[in-house]
Amino acid sequence: MNDRAIRLSLSLALVAFAAACAGPRARPEPIAAVHAVESPLSLKPVEPAAVQPDPRPVELARVTFVAVGDVLPHGAVKGSAERWNERDEAGRSLNFEGWGALFAGVASELSRADLAFANLETPVSASGDHDSRPFFFNAKPPMLQALMHAGVDLVGFANNHAYDQGHRGLVETLDALDELGLPQAGAGRDLERARRGLRLERNGVRIAVLGASQFFNQSQHVSADPKQAQVVKLDSPEPMQAAIRAAREDSDFVIVSLHWGVEYEPQPREAEVQLAHRLFEAGADVILGTHPHVLQPIEVYRAEDGRTCLVVYSLGNFISNQSRFYAHRVSPEKVGDTRDGAMLRFAIVKRDYGAGVSRTELADVSYVPVWTDNDHLVRKSKELPDIRVVDLERSLERVRAELEALTANLAERPSKELERQLVELKKRLELLSRRKEIIEVRLGPDFAAQRETGRTP
User: Fold this and answer.
1) What pTM was estimated for this model as a whole?
2) Is the pLDDT score of 13 beyond 90?
3) In a 10 Å sphere around its CB, with 0-12 CB exposed, 13-18 middle and 19+ buried, how is residue 46 labelled?
4) Cβ(256)–Cβ(403) below 8 Å
5) CB 95 within 8 A of CB 84
6) CB within 8 A of 6, min separation 6: which ones?
7) Which has the closest alpha carbon to 257: 306, 218, 207, 302?
8) Three-state secondary structure along 80-119?
9) Which pLDDT does position 169 carry in this prediction?
């Protein structure tokens, strides 16, 4: 046997010997068993992360509120309503004896709010003198109906003209408001109810509205009997502070209408500022100032209990015949201030902060500038004027659209009529733009409303 054969035989013998030592061959594990074996390289399933609660407060309810200033039915304002009075064949009024036309330009803004407020600076007395005279006012129910139709839901009646038709006129005004279903704040069938103010509920939010006036023109008509009809007098802060504290006991949000300040002054006095702060600390959330007949600034105040509060020291006039001789670029600009106004907007929001804690808070403050159109200067001596409230931004949109349409069709030599229209449109554009700028300076640009475009007034 050669060497190669010897080495092959030896190798086979060694393999046989090793197999003999190992014993019987083990059966292979099934595949499933192999997969079940734990391995450091195996991928473990990822557990879904626990959903964390949103830490932000949850809005539970919201009430939108709009407030406008003084409604002054001067004789010329009544005449303007008469100008637009339309009746059907049976003689029935179609537009609240013409008053509807005076508020049509702002009705969409007022009616979109859950609550809209106006300062009713006139009695509505059936037995009084229906022709407003200097320093004395009176109106008829169609004016109230037109305000309601435009969107006004409540009025303030604590002001210096509340007794213009005597104590009887006050009672008749309360009767007229009750008959129409138009709530008021600042007056009542007796002193206790007058001081208690108004309680409303909207969208599950309880709202108190109180009112008071620092002065009355016809104070001789104020009854000394607290059980007789009264308008709340703001002689000192303490009674109003007490009324506000009482209102907080059964309300979520407290609004106070104050007739105060100095007429035609563009800034509040330090006395009004300090009074506002005291009433905020007593529990008021919003103060709506009236009487100066011109706009005064907006202030945001942080109360010691953490509430954010708001005061507009004067909302200015909503409608009147004041500044009827104002001519843009001819009169001093301040002469037109009594025709400037604003629709103050804010939201009352109830929020859930968790752990059983909820708060009702002020939110989303803004204003819409308005202007009282009055064409007295272009009317003949006995011709009724056209007086109406307009939304400045909507009016500007309309003028720009008319101007664009006119200039697109102008020839190189336009007719005299087209020249006249061009001049008038550009003058009106300049007037409305300037009054808007003045209002934004007075109230501040921060709260100027951001409006969508493409709508006409």
Assistant:
1) 0.86
2) no
3) exposed
4) no
5) yes
6) none
7) 207
8) HHHHCCCECCCCCECCCCCHHHHHHHHHHHHHCCCEEEEE
9) 96
**Which helix H or strand E contains 242, and what residues bound it?**
helix 237-250
**204: phi then psi, degrees, rounded to nearest 5:** 80, 5
- For residue 414, the model assigns a pLDDT of 82
Q: What is the mean pLDDT of the chain?
A: 90
3-state secondary structure of 257: strand
Rounded to an integer, what distance in angstroms lies between the CA atom of residue 446 and that of residue 14?
100
| Rounded alpha-carbon distances, angstroms, from residue 257 to 34, 274, 404 | 84, 16, 43
Q: Taking a C-beta distance cutoff of 8 angstroms, is the pair 261, 314 a contact?
A: yes
> What strand order describes the sheet that includes 198-202?
198-202, 205-213, 253-259, 286-290, 308-315, 295-302
Residue 25's CB is within 10 A of a number of other CB atoms, namely 7
The predicted pLDDT at position 34 comes to 42
Name the DSSP letter for residue 39.
-
Q: What is the pLDDT of residue 409?
A: 79
More confident residue, 41 or 80: 80
Structure tokens at 407: 């200039």
Q: Are 374 and 339 a contacting pair, CB within 8 Å?
A: yes
176: nearest Cα among 123, 130, 99: 123
In 91-236, which ranges are continuous DSSP H helix?
99-103, 107-111, 141-150, 166-180, 191-196
Q: What is the mean pLDDT of residues 162-188?
A: 97
Residue 317 in 3-state DSSP? strand
What is the total residue count of the chain?
457
Q: What is the pLDDT of residue 455?
A: 41
Residues 6+ apart with CB under 8 A from 203: 61, 62, 63, 114
Share of the chain above pLDDT 90, in %: 76
- Listing DSSP states for 45-61 in one string gives PPPPPPPPPP-SPEEEE
- Do the Cβ atoms of 324 and 374 come closer than 8 Å? yes
Dump pLDDT digits (tens) for 239-285.
Answer: 999 999 999 999 999 999 999 999 999 999 999 999 999 999 999 99
Within its chain, how far is the Cα of 25 from the centroid? 92
Helix (H) or strand (E) holding 286: strand 286-290
Q: How far apart are CA 66 and CA 39, in angstroms?
A: 70
